[in-house]
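[recover] target loaded
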């Protein structure tokens, strides 16, 4: 994995070493270790069920066998008042907030008590039928006399969007041999269970089992319009007037060995305070509310007419109880409790029959099979410690995006119905990422997403009128019904970037989709025109400069919303008006003059307004700052202060006053990079490189989508030499590994879409915004394979990238044309007339010149620093002295300190048979009569094991490094820069765990390396230590370079190494060690050599295995290094050149 150029401003997105979930076939399962230390809310969020309309979030079972689920419905909301400091009709007086409809509990009571779990149930989510499973084993009664299993299944239908269901199968009922004996033996005082007869201990035990279905409604938020049982409930929001209908069906079937019985339920109605008087209330006669003029929902008002208006009672519970008695003679083989529910918004639905759970699951399987047959995404790291860990994240994200796509025409909440309140709002900025994703994976769903935006157009026109625009439409950033739902967006600068982003999605959709219905073309063009026509009204011409300005309008970055001249707004508005003109002319040619005239008349637009688009677009000038050579976020960005001092607390918006943020030079969403990524045709590659270098250091990454933007631009700019794989890994794993601890707030669907874009537009280097499909995949260090599919013009293209080839395959459709690399046109098809089918083509990924001496270089970290070995010695010396002092005091004997000669001979030249075991330190201790076990890497510093000592040494070294801050040798730094600029892939390795600390003090060196291996990774991957060359082989593999084309810079190669192992590489350079030169008396021994026959066998006749490099004459350029390899440089000490003859 490459180093990421992490700035002091950046938020931490570190992925834990141990995964929370594992991929088992097509099932996501919770790791056995994770259950002990991971919050249940993480599992609840990942395993929830949704179809985009319903969201059912299950609460993980912890101690009892009860199953609880919260139900959310897309578009169901409450109104909350806005604290308006300015009394203006232009500002909204209320906002929408997502609502939790109800809580559903499926409980099992044994003699009135909940069944107790003996262990945490295994949980899994099946990606093939979208079903959640929880397996409760060995559930016990309170007295331990009854045990059974409970298998829970939950599914949210993707065929009938208002439907979800769950069932629990209780089985394996067993009685203890003697509950009476159990209690008698446990206590000197005789205790009788409720199910035992105290006068007759030999009587057969019996238990009363209650299977209870409970629907709980919060009366502070909802009024009950109708509801005399759990089967039929009608609710109305107390603030928005939204009406929600809940129709359920609950059954309990008991199977015996020779018969089956359905239990007749008992109904009950309870309030939270236990007032059973409510059971006599009749809710069936309640009436619906009358219409109101609420701006959030004109259909229903806030006045509720119902039979129950007591808000002091906080909740109301509708219960259905199924009761059976169990004895040894009436022991059932299975009890199945089934719950099915339909949730309908807006009124009372017509009655429909419920399908069975099995029928729903079969429908799910067919729907998902079709999806997985045409959708492919995979990204694998080399030798992952947890197999398929990244694949799990990608499959999960794709699965979730597919599930919510069933209801895109009604809007996509930012949390995908995985949580309530703000997670149920639609973040229309995230629609930018969703629009690109669905357009390239499932165009019909992209059209549904746009149709959802079109449904908000009437309210968007009202929004435009509110800010005194004569015509056009203004779309908010966060909404449910079309009005702005984030208060700071209503009182600070206008955030109108969503308009341009909608225009971008529409233009991209027309470019990527071949067949579009005429009616769809017309309403899409209407949406495009209405969103574009606001720009000429919002800006003004600067006559002295002849340019058009859009000031006081902010982009998506919350940290730069108070200055004029926003780059992203000007660029996106310019391209929006250009796109609308192009699109209008295209549709004019296709649909004819009459259709276009009718459309313009419908929206009260004339052709002069269209022509004004052209003049306004041409008048917007995007200027580069001449001094910095980059585009500025806004006009005054370069005048802001740098953030100095302590590292900021994240997110900044929750820890600092807005003025403190606005006055500093930093970004959250890097708008400049986002604009350059979306409109690549407007910029050259050098612009991407320069602006990336400038803004990645200023990015706080408080918004996770910023990871995708920076990663995609890095891949686009630097290709296989990009460093963004760690960012991409964190982005993909954000939810499944709870990277930023936001599980309670719901999933991040914007992250899911943007991570896919980072792969396809970044690694695949798809050029967004083009009407021709351009692909030029790269293969960053550390990856073993990348796969993805793209839908384009009615066909589906599969792309596979490995270290040798890029393979394209047509997997659906008749024909697809695209451009690979620098203009190589490729046409894949199923056959035309006399032409045979051509479905697949493989293109060599890299065509390397064989004229160069090498393609990669691996540096042992210690070669980069002059004094690093001295620091290692000081750290070990202090660590061992602490141990020796204890032994001297306890055993009253003299113990000699560690000497430099001893450190040199036994530690520097330590030889290990396998991975590092600190054999050198072990030998030092054995010489003093101290024998310590190896231990584990988790041993604390005070634990007397070799790993405990090593951990203490790491801490000691960190303290020394903080004082000395060693710098990379100037000659080495110059060589590294020249190698990198010459296209040589670089890696740095060490057996020490202090590599990251060293690189922290040398940030200018970090970006030069594509991969690294430190002591932690060497241990985790069982990489053999010195004198083996496995660590260098692994580094060459990481940077995708054949070892035979790779040079290695190492130290102390004169002992222990085998010539046959060294011969795998192009050449080794033995860099002089200052520690050995100054502090010890030992002389360098002869280097290992190959026999003549062995040298001839490997084709290296006359070429040395090892060259010794003096610190005083290090090469600083690749040319000088090659001259040394040719033997043309005086810096090579011929006395230390290894020959091949013995």
């Amino acid at each position: 994995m490459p180093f990421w150029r992490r700035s002091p401003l950046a938020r931490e997105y570190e992925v834990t070493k141990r995964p929370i979930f594992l991929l088992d076939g097509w099932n996501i399962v919770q790791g056995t270790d994770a259950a002990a230390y991971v919050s249940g809310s993480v599992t609840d969020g990942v395993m929830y069920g949704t179809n985009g309309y319903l969201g059912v979030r299950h609460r993980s079972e912890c101690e009892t066998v009860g199953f609880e689920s919260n139900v959310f419905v897309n578009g169901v909301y409450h109104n909350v008042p806005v604290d308006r400091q300015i009394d203006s009709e232009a500002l909204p007086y209320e906002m929408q907030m997502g609502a939790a409809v109800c809580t559903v509990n499926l409980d099992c009571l044994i003699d009135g008590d909940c069944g107790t779990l003996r262990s945490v149930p295994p949980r899994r989510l099946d990606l093939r039928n979208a079903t959640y499973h929880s397996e409760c084993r060995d559930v016990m009664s309170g007295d331990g006399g009854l045990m059974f299993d409970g298998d829970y299944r939950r599914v949210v239908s993707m065929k009938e969007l208002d439907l979800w269901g769950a069932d629990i199968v209780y089985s394996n009922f067993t009685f203890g041999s003697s509950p009476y004996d159990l209690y008698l033996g446990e206590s000197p005082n005789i205790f009788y269970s409720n199910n035992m007869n105290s006068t007759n201990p030999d009587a057969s035990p019996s238990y009363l089992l209650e299977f209870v279905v409970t629907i709980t409604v919060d009366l502070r938020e909802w009024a009950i319009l109708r509801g005399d049982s759990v089967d039929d409930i009608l609710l109305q929001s107390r603030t928005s007037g939204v009406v929600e209908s809940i129709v359920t069906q609950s059954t309990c079937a008991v199977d015996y060995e020779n018969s089956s019985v359905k239990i007749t339920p008992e109904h009950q109605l309870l309030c939270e305070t236990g007032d059973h008087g409510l059971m006599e209330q009749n809710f069936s006669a309640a009436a619906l509310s009358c219409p109101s003029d609420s701006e959030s929902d004109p259909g229903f008002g806030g006045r509720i007419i119902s039979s129950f208006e007591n808000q002091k009672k906080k909740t109301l519970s509708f219960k259905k109880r199924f009761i059976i008695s169990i004895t040894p003679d009436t022991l059932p083989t299975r009890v199945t409790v089934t719950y099915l529910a339909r949730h309908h918004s807006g009124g009372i639905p017509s009655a429909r029959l419920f399908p069975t759970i099995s029928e729903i699951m079969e429908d799910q399987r067919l729907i998902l099979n079709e999806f997985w047959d045409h959708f492919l995404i995979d990204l694998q790291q080399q030798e992952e410690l947890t197999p398929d860990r990244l694949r799990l994240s990608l499959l999960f994200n794709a699965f979730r995006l597919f599930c919510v796509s069933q209801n895109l025409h009604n809007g996509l909440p930012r949390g995908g119905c995985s949580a309530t309140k703000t997670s149920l709002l639609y973040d229309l900025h995230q629609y930018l990422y969703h629009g690109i994703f669905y357009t390239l994976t499932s165009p019909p769903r992209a059209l549904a997403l746009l149709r959802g935006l079109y449904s908000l157009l009437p309210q968007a026109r009202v929004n435009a009128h509110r800010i005194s625009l004569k015509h056009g439409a203004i779309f908010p950033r966060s909404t449910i019904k079309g009005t702005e739902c984030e208060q700071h967006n209503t009182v600070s600068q206008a955030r109108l970037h969503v308009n341009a982003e909608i225009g971008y999605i529409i233009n991209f959709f027309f470019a990527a989709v071949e067949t579009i219905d005429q009616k769809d073309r017309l309403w899409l063009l209407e949406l495009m025109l209405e969103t574009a026509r606001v720009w000429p009204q919002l800006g003004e011409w600067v006559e002295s400069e002849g340019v058009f300005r859009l000031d006081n309008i902010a982009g998506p970055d919350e940290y730069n919303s108070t200055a004029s001249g926003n780059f992203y707004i000007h660029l996106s508005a310019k391209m929006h008006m250009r796109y609308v003109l192009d699109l209008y002319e295209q549709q004019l040619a296709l649909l004819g003059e009459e259709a276009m005239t009718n459309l313009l008349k419908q929206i009260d637009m004339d052709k002069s307004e269209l022509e004004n688009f052209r003049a306004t677009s041409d008048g917007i000038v995007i200027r580069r700052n001449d001094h910095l050579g980059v585009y500025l976020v806004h006009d005054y960005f370069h005048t802001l202060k740098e953030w100095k001092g302590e590292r900021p607390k994240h997110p900044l918006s929750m820890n600092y006053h807005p003025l403190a943020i606005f006055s500093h030079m930093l970004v959250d969403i890097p708008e400049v990079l986002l604009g350059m990524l979306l409109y690549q045709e407007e910029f050259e590659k050098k612009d991407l490189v320069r602006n990336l270098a400038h803004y990645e250091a200023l990015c706080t990454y408080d918004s996770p989508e910023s990871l995708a933007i920076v990663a995609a631009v890095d891949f686009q700019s630097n290709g296989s030499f990009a460093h963004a794989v760690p960012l991409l890994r964190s982005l993909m794993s954000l939810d499944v590994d709870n990277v930023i601890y936001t599980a309670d707030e719901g999933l991040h669907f914007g992250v899911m879409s943007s991570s896919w874009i980072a792969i396809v537009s970044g690694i695949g280097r798809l050029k967004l915004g083009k009407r021709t499909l351009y692909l030029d995949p790269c293969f960053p260090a550390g990856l073993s394979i990348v796969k993805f599919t793209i839908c384009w013009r009615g066909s589906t293209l599969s792309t596979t990238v490995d270290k040798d080839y890029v393979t394209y395959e047509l997997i659906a459709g008749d024909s697809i044309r695209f451009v690979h690399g620098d203009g190589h046109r490729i046409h894949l098809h199923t056959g035309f007339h006399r032409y045979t089918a051509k479905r697949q083509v493989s293109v060599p990924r890299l065509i390397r010149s064989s004229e160069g001496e090498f393609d990669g270089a691996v540096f042992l970290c210690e070669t980069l620093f002059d004094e690093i070995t001295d620091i290692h010695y000081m750290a070990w010396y202090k660590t061992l002295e602490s141990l020796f002092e204890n032994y001297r005091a306890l055993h009253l004997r003299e113990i000699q300190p560690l000497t430099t000669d001893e450190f040199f001979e036994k530690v520097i030249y330590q030889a290990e048979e396998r991975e590092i075991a600190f054999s050198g330190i072990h030998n030092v201790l054995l010489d003093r009569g101290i024998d310590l076990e190896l231990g584990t890497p988790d041993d604390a510093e005070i634990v007397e094991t070799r790993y405990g000592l090593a951990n203490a040494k790491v801490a000691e070294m960190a303290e020394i490094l903080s004082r000395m801050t060693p710098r990379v040798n100037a000659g080495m730094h110059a060589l590294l820069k020249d190698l990198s600029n010459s296209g040589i892939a670089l890696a740095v390795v060490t057996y020490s765990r202090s590599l990251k600390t060293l690189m922290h003090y040398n940030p200018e060196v970090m970006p030069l390396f594509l991969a690294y291996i430190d002591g932690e990774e060497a241990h985790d991957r069982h990489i053999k230590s010195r004198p083996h060359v496995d660590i260098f082989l692994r580094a060459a593999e990481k940077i995708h370079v054949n070892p035979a084309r790779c040079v290695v810079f190492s130290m102390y190669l004169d002992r222990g190494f085998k010539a046959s192992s060294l011969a795998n590489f192009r050449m080794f350079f033995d860099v002089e060690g200052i520690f050995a030169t100054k502090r010890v008396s030992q002389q360098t021994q002869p280097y290992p050599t190959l026999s003549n026959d062995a040298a001839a066998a490997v084709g290296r006749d006359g070429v040395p295995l090892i060259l010794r490099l003096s610190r005083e004459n290090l090469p600083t350029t690749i040319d000088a290094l090659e001259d040394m390899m040719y033997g043309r440089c005086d810096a090579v000490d011929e006395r230390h050149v290894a020959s091949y003859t013995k």
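[recover] notes: The first strand starts at residue 21 and ends at 24.
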